[in-house]
Amino acid sequence: MHSMVEIQKLLMPDVLSVMEKRYQILRSIYFMEPVGRRTLAQTIGLSERILRSEVEFFKKQHLIDIQNSGMKVSEQGLTVLKELESMMNEISGINEMERKLKEVLNLQEVIIVPGNSDEAPWVTAALGRVCARRMKEMLIGDNIIAVSGGSTMAAVADMLTPDFAGRKNLLFVPARGGIGEDVEIQANTICSKMAEKTGGKHRALYVPDQVSPEVYQSFTKEPFIKEVLSLIEQANIVLHGIGDAMAMALRRNTRPEVIEKIEAAHAVGEAFGNYFNEDGQVVHKVPIAGLQPEDLPHVEHILAVAGGASKAKAIKAYMKSAIKSSVLITDEGAAKEILYS
């Protein structure tokens, strides 16, 4: 039996095409707001003339508000977006991609965001918003949330709001140390921002991201660090990204001889200090202070967030050894690369 969407595709393809275009424009405004018309036109690849007529339509329907700072989706527009989401995912084929990706990666849940974050910055914001929404569904009572560093996790922090926690108690802790990389995307910074935006609390771990075993042992004897590491081990929710192997190695100012080792071993991805090849085998392990991969089976909820076609190999490789109850939040760019390349 044909679904209603399939019937509509046969009888009213033009209507569905217009609906899909307007949904994507309204959705882009939502993730980029406040946004000007020229910036939006350049981002989504429409001429300003065509976009001008669509903006006028949204304005007449009270779906957007236009302010000096730019366009924003109105409350009515947000309601329309939420009600259309499931239908539009079916029309665009995202629902089917999610089903296929779950099978390919052997995961219980996959959420795919439209677009490719390699090409459009607003898609990274969409990944952050979806992660924030999914995490909110997991909160029960007291929560310790361990968060890794990276630009995607920073996007998640940007999407948190004061009403996020409700009556839940939130404690954000860094999944690992982070001294030595860009301050804005360090786990400590991201945890601080998440706590500030939700009214929760956070603890910092002021140790280098990469340490020798001897130094690691000396660090863990410090009472303050020992306490924070204990909290990290008690986390019931973990949020983490999946990095491209070489990009992560360079970001961490890795020694040239180690980079040569990683290249020679054909590493494609990195997570929790482990570099792995396309078969999911760990080819290099960085001693890190904080959460270790062997700690993950004891974590109730794991959200892995990574997007962009360039991350496809890293995502696929990491998921070969990942906890199967992990929730993968990714985008169309990565999903299509994994499924069809």
TrEMBL record:
One Pfam family here: Sugar-bind
Keyword check for Transcription: yes
Domain (Sugar-binding): residue spans on this chain: 90-339
Recorded superkingdom: Bacteria
Family: Belongs to the SorC transcriptional regulatory family.
PANTHER family with a match to the protein in the record: CENTRAL GLYCOLYTIC GENES REGULATOR (PTHR34294:SF5), TRANSCRIPTIONAL REGULATOR-RELATED (PTHR34294)
Name under which the protein is recorded: Sugar-binding transcriptional regulator
Organism: Heyndrickxia acidicola
